[in-house]
Amino acid sequence: MPESHSTAYDSKIEGNVIFTRFDAALNWVRKNSLWPMPMGLACCAIELMATAASRFDIARFGAEVMRFSPRQCDVMIVAGTVTYKMALAVKRIYEQMPEPKWVIAMGACASTGGMYRSYAVLQGIDQLLPVDVYISGCPPRPEALLALEKSLGEKIQNKTEFRSETTYAIAPADLREIAKFCRYELSFDYLIDITSIDNFGEEPRFEIVYELYSMPLGVHLRLKLRISEDVGTVDTVSDIWPTANWHEREIYDMMGIKFNGHPDLRRILMWDGYPFFPLRKEFPLEGLPSEMPDVAFTKVTPMEGGPFVTQPSTANAKDREPRAHPPEL
């Protein structure tokens, strides 16, 4: 007689099984086991050595395995002055490292050539290799390297590369901390734009994208976060980048997302008291009727031949322009 086995839940394995995505688990492993390729070229290498000693102990972040074997390394740390004579050797070692891989320019010389404005010194390793993180200082303290190692690990978990553009997906609760770090530590001094996206039918519904640029380094960076419709709020960054003031007001006006701590969160295009948010996906192209006594009123706009739709004809651009035919209100 065949044996029957119970399919009930086995409490003995409770707490020992975790369900996740494969890429999330793989990135978690990478985050906590970075193997540096130490490229010590000058005095900054002494500070790099100090990070592995007992006082700073880089092993706390799983990055103590410093091997001079590029095929086993994840992140190259260029510490010191890069001469043209040494530059091609550095590039060759970088090319021998497997993907994915990252580069840290440690100190002023590796970042910009430092004080050596001479024919023999490469003016920044980024002229030869794609640099992910710059560490300032001459030389930088070991604490600076540890802070950047930690931040780099956190970024790897949410890093996306597309057409040489880098995007980090972050949690809304971490926005201000990461924004300050990008602004004051990584020199992203220019906020180009803030964009809001309505993923109607998904949860979290809204997405906010921050486009950053570093004037001193000439580097672009994109931060991206998602918030649910029930929450509908995120912290302001207008005190970190003043240009965020109007961008956040426009997002509030068009999408209805509020920004905590904004100094003047008023509608910027629509009237105060307007009940709708025109860039949300459920807002129809022809608009919605509304009534605001003593302020303004709106009504549905016809699509065929309306003010926002060009009429097919053989007329010139001036006569076809829809704004040349305003609706009768």
Q: First CA to last CA: what distance?
A: 85 Å
The topology string of helices and strands comes to HEHEHEHEHEEHEEEEHEEEH
Which strands sit side by side, in order, in the main sheet?
Answer: 5-6-9-8-7
Radius of gyration: 27 Å
CATH architecture of the largest domain: 3-Layer(aba) Sandwich
| Low-confidence parts | 323-327
Mean pLDDT, all residues? 77
List the helices and strands and how they pair.
Layout: H1 22-31, E1 36-40, H2 44-52, E2 75-79, H3 84-96, E3 102-106, H4 108-112, E4 133-135, H5 142-156, E5 159-162, E6 165-169, H6 175-185, E7 190-198, E8 206-214, E9 219-227, E10 233-235, H7 244-255, E11 258-260, E12 290-292, E13 296-298, H8 317-320
Parallel strand pairs: 1-2, 2-3, 3-4, 6-9, 10-11
Antiparallel strand pairs: 5-6, 7-8, 8-9, 12-13
